[in-house]
Design goal:
binds zinc ion; alpha+beta; single chain; HIT family, subunit A; globular
Length: 114
């Protein structure tokens, strides 16, 4: 597969399923799946299906914010129960490679990136 060089892998590839993903949870509005190139041993990504640029573009309160946070909470609770700990993180600005809101829920060893 050619390396993706666009700015929104979620709208371009993940949500329309132009790449294979292993789904953890899916609803009409939210998708959670195992990262296709994980940075950590256990690495789940949670993203809204509608385009929201970043965490700073998410409005509170709103139905989508509530659903995203509930999804993160459920997956993080499951990861903590299985492995004892986890991290929840989202990136902004130059740290954010793909300009579509997404959260990483991770546990374990930081993997070598090729
Ligand atoms: Zn998008």
């Amino acid at each position: 597969m050619l390396e993706y060089t666009g700015k929104d892998i979620y709208c371009d590839l993940v949500i329309p399923r132009k790449i294979d993903i292993r789904v953890v949870f899916e609803s009409e509005n939210v998708l959670a799946y195992h990262h296709t190139k994980p940075f950590w041993e256990h690495h789940v990504v949670v993203t809204p299906k509608q385009h929201i640029g970043s965490f700073l573009d998410l409005e509170f309160p709103s139905p989508i914010a509530k659903e995203i946070l509930n999804t993160i909470k459920t997956i993080a609770a499951d990861m903590q129960q299985k492995y004892g700990s986890c991290r929840i993180l989202t990136n902004l600005g130059e740290y954010q490679d793909s300009k579509h809101l997404h959260f990483h829920i991770v546990h374990g060893t930081l993997l070598n990136q090729n």
